[in-house]
Design a protein that fits this description.
The chain has helices spanning 29-34, 40-59, 65-69, 72-84, 86-102; strands spanning 12-18, 21-27. It has 104 residues and is an alpha+beta fold. The chain is elongated and about 45 Å long. Strand 1 and strand 2 (21-27) form a beta hairpin. Helix 2 (40-59) crosses helix 5 and helix 4 packs across helix 5.
């Protein structure tokens, strides 16, 4: 499927409701961020969660705050919070990882 704004492959698919009817939207990553108003931070968070899932699958445990800190700006921010509020952040990330592992 092709992006609605260019010739790139559409990798972001969502449905918006317009005048009470669902409208399918398909964008490449760049145009989803630019034209559809989807923040690139959302992609960064998704990448971080994917990395944590991969780490969990490989090691059977969540990464340490130091390992998370090495995963770009979002990772550094999460690691800072993780060090100060480990239980709360740990639980939020654990739930996100479990959902990804289960596929929902």
């Amino acid at each position: 499927m092709q992006c609605e704004a260019c010739t790139e492959a559409a990798t972001i698919h969502f449905t918006e409701v317009s005048a009470g009817k669902p409208v399918e939207r398909n964008y490449c990553k760049r145009h989803a961020a630019e034209g559809a108003g989807i923040s690139e931070r959302l992609f960064e968070w998704g990448g971080l969660i994917d990395w944590i899932v991969a780490h969990y699958k490989e090691h059977g445990a969540l990464p340490t705050a130091a390992e998370v800190a090495q995963q770009g700006k979002i990772g550094a921010g999460v690691a800072t919070v993780w060090q100060h509020d480990g239980d709360g952040v740990f639980e939020d990330i654990r739930h996100a990882v479990e959902k990804r592992i289960r596929g929902y």
